[in-house]
Amino acid sequence: MMYNQKKKTLFERDGASLVATTILPSSSAGDDDDHDGIILTLYLHRHAEKNVINPTMISLLVQALHVIDSHPLLVHTNNKALIITGIDHENLKICKFFGNGLDLEWMMKASNDQNNGAKNDENPTSLMIEQFNSQVLAKILTLPFRTVAAINGHCIGAGLFLALACDYRFMRTERGYIQWPEARLGMRLTKGFAELSKAKIGDYAVLREGLLTAKRYTSEEALSLGIVDGEYPLEELYSAAFRFAMEGLPESSNNPLDYFDPKAYSEMKMEIWCSAYRALKFGKVSDPPHSRI
């Protein structure tokens, strides 16, 4: 069957945007309720900052996720999927970063400001990480539909954790690498990041190498080791992610889920990745490495 597409921007602010692509059968009159699914794309275009995670980026992600929960186009359909990417369709040359980790410059400034008079019992970096974990990663981890990270470039640290929170990961070939950089930076993971890594990387040897050596993985290596699920040239990456997102639509794919229930689907994800969800949702940066959450 041939499909038409209708795009609508649901959210756009400061380099982040959420676009809904409604899949319309060729016979459709174009009504919002007459469709074969909606593919959401969350674009991260803060290229000048290399898509680092800082309070501004976290706020934008939280706002976009709220739109997914509340927009009238979305609340009355279960037949949807989400792609997260840093691809810029109008200028592929600037798509060098999916996410370049935590904003170390912001963290240093916040630490200096704290030392110069801010409250000592409220570490700004810890608060930022906890908000990222509880309001962004835990939310994406348990969204009640298929989620796909289309990794368009370097995917490092917190950028990698954003990709790991998704159900599936596709990565561009030829340029960009995946890395857990904490060992190189003299940092521990925190419980949330550690449990998420353990939940999504099934091979202990890969987890050991990635975490303890801060190895940089190319797309070919990441695919062979199960860190990502596919690799494509940048020009084909988004279309591959889009097709895969369509294949996971619960009501209109070639393998529909007959009695799909979004609440049960979200809870199933929570059950599968329970330790990661608990650590992200309820953990604190100050929790000891040996603690149970």
Outline of this structure?
With 293 residues, this protein is α/β, with parallel strands linked by helices.
Write up this protein.
- There is one protein chain.
- With 293 residues, the chain is of the alpha/beta class.
- Helices cover 42% and strands 19% of the residues.
- The protein has a 7-stranded mixed β-sheet with strand order 1-2-3-4-6-8-10, with helices on both faces. A 3-stranded parallel β-sheet has the order 5-7-9.
- A hairpin with a 2-residue loop joins strand 1 and strand 2.
- Helix 4 packs parallel to helix 5, helix 4 runs antiparallel to helix 12 and helix 5 crosses helix 7.
Structural class: alpha/beta
Unreliable parts: none
**What's the arrangement of strands in the largest beta sheet?**
1-2-3-4-6-8-10
Major sheet description: 7 strands, mixed
**Secondary structure: helix percent:** 40-55%
Question: Helix tally?
Answer: 12
Percentage of residues in DSSP E strands: 15-25%
N→C terminal distance: 49 Å
For the secondary structure, the number of strands is 10
Order of helix and strand elements from N to C terminus: EEEHHEEHHEEHEEHHHHEHHH
Shape: globular
The whole-angstrom Rg is 19 Å
The residue-averaged pLDDT reads: 93
Which SSEs are present, and which pair or pack?
Elements (H helix, E strand, L loop, with lengths): L2 E11 L2 E10 L12 E7 L10 H16 L1 H4 L4 E6 L11 E4 L3 H12 L8 H18 L4 E6 L2 E3 L1 H8 L2 E5 L5 E2 L2 H4 L5 H10 L3 H10 L5 H6 L5 E3 L1 H14 L14 H11 L1 H9 L11
